[in-house]
Amino acid sequence: KAGVTQTPRYLIKTRGQQVTLSCSPISGHRSVSWYQQTPGQGLQFLFEYFSETQRNKGNFPGRFSGRQFSNSRSEMNVSTLELGDSALYLCASSLVQGGVDEQFFGPGTRLTVL
Amino acid sequence: AQSVTQLGSHVSVSEGALVLLRCNYSSSVPPYLFWYVQYPNQGLQLLLKYTTGATLVKGINGFEAEFKKSETSFHLTKPSAHMSDAAEYFCAVSEIRSSASKIIFGSGTRLSIRP
Q1: B100 with A105: Cβ contact below 8 A
Q2: Core-most of A41, A95, A103, B114, by most CB within 10 Å?
Q3: Contact B42 A42 (CB under 8 A)
Q4: Are A86 and A111 in contact (CB under 8 A)?
Q5: Which residues from A are below 8 Å from B107, CB to CB?
Q6: Inter-chain contact A56–B34, Cβ cutoff 8 Å?
Q7: B2-25 as b/e: b if 16+ CB within 10 A
C-alpha cells in the first residue's frame, strides 16, 4: 500500500507570495492533518480535515487555510508569506478522525521564505 | 487541556547502553499515548502506542514504554542502543473522546549514539 505523499518536497518563495502544498493520504484514510515543524517551535498542529470538512484547528492566523477533496486528498495554502513561515510542513493521514489512532506521516514539504 | 513534556532536548548514550527518553503528560481524561521517531529528512513514524489494557507497551526496533498513571509518565526505553537509533523522538498525547480530540506532540528529544 502506498504511503502518504506530499508535493512538492522543496519550495522557495519570497515574502508576500502565496503557496499551495498538496498531500495524498493512504488509500482508504479519510482523515488528513497538517503540522508545521520548526527548530524553535517544534511540531505544531495546523488543522485536521475529515470527509471534506475541517474538524479541528490549531492556533495559526487566517493566512493558513486548507481544504480536502472528495478523494481525501488535501491542500494547504499559505497567503502573504512571512519569513517565519519557513518550516517543514508535514501531512499525516489516519483511518479515523480526532487523533485517537495512529497517524501516518508523509516526508514533508520544506518551505523556505526569502 | 492536554500537554506533553519531554525532559531533555538532547540525550547521548554509548552504543550498547540503555536508552531512556522521558515523557510526562497532562490530560483531564484517559489519554492515548504515542511515541514517534523521525529520521533526518523524513516524516514521523510510529514506534508504539498505549490506548487501554496492559501498561507496558512493546514497539518496533526493540523499544518499549510503560504507562504510569500515578506519575503521569510514558517513558521510552531500549535495553541496548544501536547506532541506527540515532534520530529525534516525539512523545504525543491524545484524549479519548470524540471529534474534539487531536494529537499534541512534545518538543522532541534528539538521541545521539556514541561508538
Answers
A1: no
A2: A103
A3: no
A4: yes
A5: 42
A6: no
A7: bebebeeeebebeeeeebebbbbb
Given a cut of 90, is residue A64 above it in pLDDT? yes
Residues of chain B numbered 33-52 and touching chain A (CB < 8 Å): 34, 36, 41-46, 49, 51
CA distance A94 to B41: 21
Mind telling me how many Å the CA of B10 is from chain A's nearest CA?
13
Q: Are strands B3-7 and B44-50 parallel, antiparallel or unpaired?
A: unpaired
Q: Decide if A85 contacts A37 (C-beta within 8 A).
A: no
Question: Using CB atoms, which residue from A42, A97, A105 is nearest to B108?
Answer: A42
Q: Tell me how far apart the alpha carbons of residues A77 and A67 are, in angstroms, rounded to a whole number.
A: 9
d(CA A109, CA B67): 33
Task: Look at residue B72 in the predicted model and tell me its pLDDT.
Answer: 94
On whether any CB of chain B is under 8 Å from the CB of A107, the answer is: yes
Q: Which amino acid is at A57?
A: K
- Residue B32 C-alpha cell reads as 492515548
B51-71: per-residue pLDDT in tens? 888 899 999 999 999 999 999
Q: Look at A107 and B98 and tell me if their CB atoms are within 8 Å.
A: no
Contact by Cβ (8 Å): A76, A54: no
